[in-house]
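#struct-help
A.M.: can someone run this one for me? Single chain, 186 residues.
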Amino acid sequence: MCKILHEKILPAKEKKEWREEDLEQAVQITLKKDNTNFESLIKNLENNPDLYEFVFNLIMNGAEFLFNLDNPIILSGKIYGILKEEKGKVKIDNRLYAQRIYNYMASKLETSGHVTFDHKKYIIELKIWRGEAYHREGIRQLCRYLDLQNLTPGYLLIYDLRKESGQTGKSESIETEGKKIFAAWV
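D.P.: on it. Structure tokens below:
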């Protein structure tokens, strides 16, 4: 990050001093770059489903766990450099890892797909809540996909990461563009 600050951010500034926003910009640049450290981080999560689920609950669901190295999942996370102990609780080792893992897991949640059950196709769109405009775009995207599949009903599962939104458990039926969409918040 110091190298990014020195070579990319400070040369563009009139005053050659670091500021908090410069550090944030360096963080964003770092998060967007590929490197073996981040590749190894993701590979270790993908190759260990129990660790992936544990970290998912920690980052995406805000779960808290007591730090105990006798737990093989926590031990694996510590060995891989993903987890650490902070005030007796399990935490992600550093801010960059936490953000990179969050971005990765969030991108995996956002996908369209279909399920076939009893010879019938069901279209399901998974989205993260990012505001009303993004929600409307997700509905339009699902309608386009339903058109491609020549189907009328569709399902929208919204993963709401806001702690106090009050939306978790909410569901609604949406009729738009000749489609019937069932939306549910989790």
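A.M.: thanks! Strands lie at 83-86, 89-92, 111-117, 120-128, 153-159, 171-176, 179-185.
D.P.: also worth noting: The two ends are 36 Å apart (CA to CA).
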